[in-house]
């Protein structure tokens, strides 16, 4: 195919050489051209007209075939990014999009390895070029209205890549596949957090199971609202679930199912190892007590500091300010006492949480210490753990399936790839133009052919006369 791609350059070179010959002959015989009888002279070309027409048709067909086949063999690839953030110059994860990454060295290395190409990344990079539709537009960047962000780019692979036992379209196909995989892995929404693991449940204490399952469910709960904000009305085709409905189910799982499980465990005082668990609760309470005392001490210091402030210093401080709509208003600014009050509130909340945990641990410790639950109660607890685990797995699978459908339908796979098809109209117009130039050149050469021959015979006669005069002079010199 690389030979086909040389048809257009060869024909173009031939056309240039044809015009060089035409111009050279014109300069030699321009003084003898019969401009007054030009119309009659053109009529003498009737015998050569069929030959010129035939050559013109052959030139047109060869030029058209060269363009069309080359375009089909080495098309340009259009890569369009189909997600909302692309219009803001961002990746789906809100990081900055950089089109140069498409032809980065690590991407090209993976293309070479996958295709088994006998070429290195540096040489392959020399055969690839990237551009955007906006590159051809002249934009005034000083005007905010003219600032545009392209959501697509054209990638061209040189025909010379075929010297390395491949072809341009194969290179572009593999490049598209490799870049899509890297794009999804590095920049797309990462739903790997929905792959929940339950291996650590084996041998875990009953009350710890509740905390572990709550942590795992929290991953799903924190992941779904982002999608719900983007598309609250999107529904799964099979189940009809939405992001909001699944998120509500996860919240009910945490707030109702896990709380019921914890109540059952505490009520019956269940523990796999009572002594170990009670010792752990006592140690945890000592740490919580220390933390609670630190928080209360920090809280008291802030309250005491607030009391030391002069009343005049705690008056409202107003500053003249303009809002986003250029409207004037008086803005209240914070003073030192405001910051101390906020910190005191935070320390008090932290101390309160520590106290609640201590009370919970104390209650659990007492329940386990006086427990005398039968074996069937422990079996019931194990069944509850299995049911809770299965329910959370189901919620995880539903969430992942809903996210997958959303990405495929709304994001359209993030990237769409297409190849430019050979333009028959453009190829025809260009071929006609070059054929017109070819025919004009052939007509010009055919028209000047008789005169050029005459010019050539005259030049020969002049050279013969000059040669004869030279011989006569040499003879006279010899006689003398």
Broad structural category: alpha+beta
**What's the number of helices?**
12
Q: What spatial order of strands do you see in the largest sheet?
A: 2-3-1-6
The largest β sheet comes out as: 4 strands, antiparallel
In angstroms, what separates the terminal alpha carbons?
A: 74 Å
- Provide the gyration radius in Å: 43 Å
Listing every helix as H and every strand as E from the N terminus to the C terminus, the arrangement reads HHHEHHEEHHHHEEHHEH
Question: What best-fitting shape do the alpha-carbon axes yield?
Answer: elongated
What does this entry look like structurally?
This protein is of the alpha+beta class and about 475 residues long. It has helices spanning about 5-30, 40-45, 45-75, 105-115, 120-125, 170-185, 205-230, 245-270, 275-310, 335-370, 375-410, 425-480; strands at about 75-80, 130, 150-155, 315-320, 330-335, 415-420. About 15% of the residues are buried. The protein is elongated. A four-stranded antiparallel β-sheet has the order 2-3-1-6. α8 (about 245-270) packs antiparallel against α11 (about 375-410). Residues about 140-145 have low confidence and may be disordered. The chain is about 65% helix and about 5% strand.
């Amino acid at each position: 195919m690389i030979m086909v791609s040389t048809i257009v350059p060869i024909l173009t070179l031939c056309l240039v050489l044809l015009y060089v010959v035409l111009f050279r002959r014109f300069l030699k015989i321009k003084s003898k051209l019969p401009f007054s009888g030009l119309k009659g002279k053109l009529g003498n070309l009737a015998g050569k007209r069929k030959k010129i027409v035939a050559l013109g048709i052959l030139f047109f067909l060869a030029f058209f075939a060269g363009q069309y086949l080359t375009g089909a063999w080495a098309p340009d690839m259009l890569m369009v990014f189909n997600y909302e953030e692309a219009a803001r110059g961002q990746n789906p994860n809100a990081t900055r999009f950089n089109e140069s990454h498409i032809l980065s060295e690590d991407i090209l290395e993976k293309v070479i390895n996958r295709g088994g190409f006998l070429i290195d990344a540096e040489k392959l990079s020399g055969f690839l070029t990237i551009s955007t539709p906006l590159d051809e537009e002249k934009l005034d960047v000083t005007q905010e209205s003219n600032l545009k962000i392209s959501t697509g780019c054209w990638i061209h692979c040189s025909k010379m890549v075929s010297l390395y036992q491949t072809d341009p379209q194969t290179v572009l196909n593999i490049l598209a596949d490799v870049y899509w995989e890297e794009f999804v892995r590095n920049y797309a929404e990462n739903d790997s957090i929905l792959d929940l693991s339950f291996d650590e449940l084996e041998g875990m204490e009953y009350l710890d199971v509740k905390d572990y399952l709550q942590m795992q469910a929290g991953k799903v709960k924190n992941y779904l609202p982002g999608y719900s904000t983007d598309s609250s009305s999107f529904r799964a085709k099979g189940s009809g679930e939405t992001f909001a409905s699944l998120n509500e189910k996860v919240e009910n799982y945490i707030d109702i199912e896990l709380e019921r499980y914890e109540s059952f465990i505490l009520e019956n005082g269940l523990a796999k190892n009572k002594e170990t668990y009670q010792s752990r609760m006592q140690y945890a309470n000592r740490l919580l007590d220390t933390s609670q005392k630190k928080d209360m001490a920090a809280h008291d210091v802030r309250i005491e500091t607030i009391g030391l402030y002069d009343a005049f210093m705690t008056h409202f401080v107003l500053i003249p300010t303009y809002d986003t709509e250029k409207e004037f208003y008086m803005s209240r600014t914070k003073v030192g006492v405001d910051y101390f009050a906020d910190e005191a509130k935070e320390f008090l909340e932290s101390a309160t949480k520590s106290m609640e945990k201590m009370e919970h641990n104390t209650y659990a410790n007492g329940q386990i210490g006086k427990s005398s639950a039968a074996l069937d109660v422990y079996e019931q607890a194990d069944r509850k753990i299995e049911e809770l685990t299965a329910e959370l797995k189901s919620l995880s699978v539903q969430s992942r399936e809903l996210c997958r459908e959303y990405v495929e339908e709304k994001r359209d796979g993030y990237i769409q790839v297409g190849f430019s098809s050979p333009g028959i109209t453009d190829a025809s117009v260009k071929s006609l133009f070059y054929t017109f130039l070819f025919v004009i050149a052939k007509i010009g050469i055919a028209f000047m052919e008789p005169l050029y021959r005459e010019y050539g015979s005259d030049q020969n006669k002049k050279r013969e006369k000059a040669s004869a005069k030279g011989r006569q002079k040499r003879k006279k010199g010899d006689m003398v």
